[in-house]
TrEMBL record:
<dbReference type="Pfam" id="PF01192">
    <property type="entry name" value="RNA_pol_Rpb6"/>
</dbReference>
<dbReference type="InterPro" id="IPR036161">
    <property type="entry name" value="RPB6/omega-like_sf"/>
</dbReference>
<dbReference type="GO" id="GO:0006351">
    <property type="term" value="P:DNA-templated transcription"/>
</dbReference>
<keyword id="KW-0548">Nucleotidyltransferase</keyword>
<dbReference type="GO" id="GO:0003677">
    <property type="term" value="F:DNA binding"/>
</dbReference>
<keyword id="KW-0804">Transcription</keyword>
<dbReference type="InterPro" id="IPR020708">
    <property type="entry name" value="DNA-dir_RNA_polK_14-18kDa_CS"/>
</dbReference>
<dbReference type="GO" id="GO:0000428">
    <property type="term" value="C:DNA-directed RNA polymerase complex"/>
</dbReference>
<keyword id="KW-0240">DNA-directed RNA polymerase</keyword>
<dbReference type="GO" id="GO:0003899">
    <property type="term" value="F:DNA-directed RNA polymerase activity"/>
</dbReference>
<dbReference type="InterPro" id="IPR006110">
    <property type="entry name" value="Pol_omega/Rpo6/RPB6"/>
</dbReference>
<protein>
    <submittedName>
        <fullName>DNA-directed RNA polymerase subunit K</fullName>
        <ecNumber>2.7.7.6</ecNumber>
    </submittedName>
</protein>
<keyword id="KW-0808">Transferase</keyword>
<dbReference type="InterPro" id="IPR006111">
    <property type="entry name" value="Rpo6/Rpb6"/>
</dbReference>
Length: 57
């Protein structure tokens, strides 16, 4: 599923907040910024979040 730029921004923001509040990372990293870690997780496809899209019909 290809994410829109709005979904990417929302997922990065939510995951970054989780990491800054003490959540465990899903990747091995030496980065120090929660936003950079969230971006790396997103690039590797290991973010434990996914968008919910409305059903068209």
């Amino acid at each position: 599923m290809k994410l829109t730029k709005f979904e990417i921004a929302r997922i990065l923001g939510a995951r970054s907040l989780q990491l800054s509040n003490g959540a465990y990372t899903t990747i091995e990293t030496t980065l120090d910024s929660s936003l950079k870690i969230a971006y790396e997780e997103l690039k590797q496809g290991k973010v434990p979040l996914k968008p919910i899209r409305p059903i068209k019909g």
